[in-house]
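Hi,

I'm pasting everything inline rather than attaching a file, because the server keeps stripping attachments. The sequence lines come first, and each chain or strand is labelled.
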Amino acid sequence: MSGNGADPTLHGGEPAPHGGESVLQLTKKDFSSDQETRWCPGCGDYAVLASVQSFMPQLGIPPDRIVFVTGIGCAGRFVYYMDTYGMHGIHGRAPALATGVATARPDLSVWVVTGDGDALSIGGNHLIHALRRNVPLKLLLFNNQIYGLTKGQYSPTSEEGKVTKSTPFGSQDHPFNPVSLALGAEASFVARTVDTDKAHMAETLRAAAAHRGAAFVEIYQNCNVFNDGAFDAVRAKGEKDRNQIRLEHGEPIRFGADGERGAVRGSEGRLELVDADGRELIVHDAKRSDPGLAFELAHLAERPTGPTPIGVFRDVDRPVYGEDWQRELEELRAQVGPDELEKLLSSGETWTVS
Amino acid sequence: MAGKTVEKKDRVVVRFAGDSGDGMQLTGSRFTDATAMVGNDLATLPDFPAEIRAPAGTPHGVSAFQIHFASRDILTPGDHPNVLVAMNPAALVTNVGTLEKGGTIVLNEDGFTDHNLRKAGYEANPLEDGSLDDYQVFRVPMTSMTVRATEEIEGVSSRDASRSKNLFALGLVSWMYGRPTEPTVSWVEQKFADQEPVQQANLAAFRAGYNFGETAELVGVQYEVAPAPAPPGTYRNINGTHALALGLIAASVQSGLQLFYASYPITPASELLHTLSRHKRFGVRTIQAEDEIAAANMALGSAFAGHLGVTATSGPGMDLKAETVGLAVALELPMVVVDVQRAGPSTGMPTKTEAADLLMALYGRHGEAPLPIVAASTPGGCFDAALDAVRIAVRHRTPVILLSDTFLANSSEPWRIPDVAALPAIDPSFAEENSEGFMPYARDEALARPWAVPGTPGLRHRIGGLEKEDGTGNISYAPENHEHMTRLRAERIARVEVPDLRVDDPDGAELLVLGWGSTYGAIEGAARRTRREHGARVATAHLTHLNPLPRNTGEVLRGFERVLVPEMNLGQLVKVLRAEYLVDCESYTKVDGLPIFTRDVMAQILERQ
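And the predicted assembly:
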């Protein structure tokens, strides 16, 4: 993992007025609103909310300078439970709303919480464009592979053949691989974590927060009502130790309860998972400018039903949208005197009638 | 000039028409600038195809520019041209029908080849078959004379030379109407400063055209149109797009709010994006969003963040933005949505005008989602409309729809430059730091809520599209709360203050002609002419605010025996007026993609005398 998340200047603005961690004594409570949470009992969203609220104090940014933006779906309610500034928009458009906020105000820390239907179906266009532009947003995609709020239709991440209320004979749609999609959209930071894995989530959020530009985090989130167990391979006791491939920048890609398995370059140049013993394992490099390895890792597991990578796939530097723009506009504006408007209105050919 | 007579004219309408590649828009706008310098009042109408390069020589490839200029106050680009400049047979065939009987045709004889005649659909050559006998025709071999005038210039290809023939036409017409040459010469010099051969070719063509008028026996008359009396002030020529852009910048300066303009390219609103993008100096940010929906959301997001959020589009984009505008209604945040209306439905006719989005602006969102609507009436009036839209949006924390149209956007007229010191102040009055239980949906006397910008200590709050409890802003599905909020949202828009409807009724008329939007010029012009020429008794009034309507609207309507409402749609305002005031207004409608003309309204007035 890279970054330490404690740098208050990491969002491109000037330092927070109250300084960093040393001055700000914030706790989880400072980020919890007084609204009653209303997800289904047992929903993975509770775990994510608790993790985010616990993580936020580590950012060292006062809650007054943090904005959460959400769309529609179960994840959309997230905004009401965070005691920050918040905007609950319409279906799929949170990245565009958030682009407006973040571009106008690079001094704010802007977070988008979205779901697989919201971000990948109705809002697919805004997601890919926010990533391509590298808008300084932290996008948390709660992927439960189902439509929960509308009570159980298949989603763009549901597997082929999925039987749901809207697909009684099985879905014919091929699903998106969100990590691969984000990489294809030229995202500069792409990661994946699991709802109940508090430590891994905190580590991932920290890396996302430290990243300059758009950070995309897919969170495997269990919908215990409509799609229970979709992520058991990487989430359930007994299975997760076997199947979670934890990506660590600069470390060999090794997994399994005793680290007995690993990733190697196979005979045809493909990434292969093998018994690690005595093999030269591939060393993960999230900072590589070409996304080849990240793509290979994204496709190592097409579905989270066996060994599946989690962690940071890619974390590279490229120009951040609007970072210097607002500063420049403010400087220009400060130089415009009161007579400038008059000059502007009178520009071009004029004539006077007396 | 010996042998030439000078004839005085009150007003002249000239129409330049040629192939889309012939540079007619440029010719027209240069002629307009020179005309403005003379001090004539003027109004223009560019009329061009949607295709970037429609097949050359065909009627759908014809691009035209009409200018009406006069020694007195005029209001429209004119109905029937007095002079048609036709660069080829297609330009002649598509435009000769509107030319006044006995009018003048100046045509490029070189363009009338057999090939071009066939492409224009002529079976016989109109120059020879007598079909133009009712007109005064000047046949000028413009292409060959331009080529000859430029052949001495080094580095000029014959293609460059023949492409300069529009400047020849401009030179000739400039001479005919005594336009100064200096504005055109200096414009060409600057425009082609780094392409000397092209610069020289254009100047040579322009001079050749001007000198041809002066010396040739062919054109016997020069016309003089005296300057129009106008209220004292400094003037410039401006089209609706530029006026709107300046209005938005002025509103940004007056409010201290940074302008955040997000839009997606669409005809005819793209010009506003191009224009604003040049004004970074004023802190103007322009974003070309990935789609119409994103543009609206970015503007709304910026409004939450404390900027002046503006998006603009035309009909198809309005359809797409509707849900976001509804969100802005629920969030109660200031935002301006500009709709430069064009002919629909669907893609319709992207470069042709219409004003058929009124009911969509009023009602085109699900649920009860009222918002204020401002409509511009004249090209220069787009400035005031923009300022007023921002004033209402900021004061009342609401999205405002500003209706313009293709005609206003492209048409130009002299504009008296407003006195900056007299522009209204706009106070954003942001909510201030506060440690005690902040209420995001608390109300002031106008029922507006606080604008609490992220980053302000103590004002953390969440807003969203879900129904919320008044005051606290907490989500609420309580029946009585939704009833209350729905009525409150209606009431707060009803309370927006708009100027009273002003009636011009010099003769105590029984007939009122009531308009909105770009029909202003045609209605006023028709009323003046029918009073002057036919002794008609007619009153006029014009709505600049469509929601809420001026408080005195019902009283005004009931004060007349008959109310006529001309519209560029199938009677949308009439529907609203009948529903609101139970007054049986009469509708006159026209939807041919062209503006309503003075003659159209004159006929309607005269029928009702």
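DSSP finds twelve helices and twelve strands in chain A.

If the labels don't parse on your end, tell me and I'll reformat.
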